[in-house]
Design brief:
Structural class: mainly alpha
CATH superfamily of the largest domain: MetI-like
Shape: globular
CATH topology of the largest domain: MetI-like fold
Strand content: under 5%
Distance between the termini: 22 Å
Largest sheet: none
CATH class of the largest domain: Mainly Alpha
Radius of gyration: 24 Å
CATH architecture of the largest domain: Orthogonal Bundle
Helix content: over 70%
Number of helices: 14
Number of strands: 0
């Protein structure tokens, strides 16, 4: 804590706060634009150019259409299932993999970490990925979305680094009391790195919530589509409708409906993540900083 703040220090703080404020506003403006547009009159939105900083009227027809659309609500349920399942499986495998790799006495732990890190830089490509998923019988099943990308090498490295900071004396004392490796991991190690665990949960949840590409190549049954894939179809259909309207093939009302559905669907897909993030934010900074300072 600086007791005698100099003029230069105060100018630095003022400049720092100014930059952070501008950056925060720039990040918030697109969200406000979509939120206000989703509640506004679609005809006014179509005639408006630039950012929308306040709603025009109050229209919830788009949200009524979304929550009465079985395809959209079904995909919403699929996304929730995929996020919870992938995050739970991914977190369990990450913890079970990181714990032994954090032990110096484990043979070839550094070599194994080298192979794991290698997958972050190189992979077999999309065709090889598709062939593997097909040959193990996951094609057009929900497991094709849940299993192939449920574990991240980066998150495993993050958890391993956090586990390596736990003093070995704690584990040794627990072993003297009769605790086994599983009990030590779940009752001693994991509570000490809960900030990192919370950060990894956030990484997994957001990544799986936004996932759509794997579903587009592995799934054919629309009843298994995630929300993001349905949202992509809506956005593409909206672009096609706009092009058709310009060439006189569709009525203006159809184009207005597509625009309204686009904004409302984006909000429905975004709000859950925005609500989830504040609860995990207090652990985020500490979680990503673990292991960055030695000593």
């Amino acid at each position: 804590m600086v007791k005698n703040k100099t003029l230069g220090y105060r100018l630095f703080l003022a400049f720092d706060y100014l930059i952070l404020t501008v950056f925060s506003v720039l990040c918030l403006l697109p969200v406000l634009h979509v939120a206000f547009a989703s509640f506004s009159d679609p005809a006014w939105v179509m005639s408006k150019s630039g950012l929308i900083l306040m709603p025009h009227g109050f229209n919830i027809d788009g949200y009524k259409q979304i929550f009465t659309n079985r395809s959209l609500m079904g995909s919403y349920g699929n996304t929730i299932l995929y996020v919870f399942s992938s995050t739970a499986i991914g977190l369990l495998v990450t913890v079970l993999g990181a714990y032994p790799l954090a032990k110096k006495e484990v043979l070839f732990s550094n070599v194994l970490m080298l192979f794991i890190s290698f997958t972050m830089l190189f992979n077999g490509g999309m065709i090889a990925f598709y062939i593997v998923v097909k040959n193990i019988g996951l094609l057009d099943t929900r497991w094709a979305v849940i299993l192939p990308t449920c574990v991240s090498a980066f998150n495993l490295i993050l958890v391993r680094t956090a586990m390596s900071t736990v003093p070995p004396a704690l584990e040794e004392s627990a072993m003297l009391d009769g605790a086994g490796p599983v009990r030590i991991m779940f009752q001693i190690v994991l509570p000490l790195i809960k900030a990192t665990i919370a950060t990894v949960i956030l990484y997994y949840a957001v990544a799986h919530w936004n996932e759509w590409f794997n579903a587009s190549i592995f799934l054919k049954d629309r009843s298994k589509f995630p929300l993001q894939l349905i949202l992509q179809e809506i956005l593409i259909a909206n672009d096609n409708a706009s092009n058709a309207t310009q060439s006189g093939q569709l009525s203006g009302n159809a184009d207005l409906y597509k625009q309204l559905m686009k904004y409302c669907t984006i909000m429905v897909a975004t709000v859950p993540v925005l609500c989830f993030y504040p609860f995990i934010m207090k652990y985020f900074e500490k979680g990503v900083m673990i292991g960055s300072i030695k000593g």
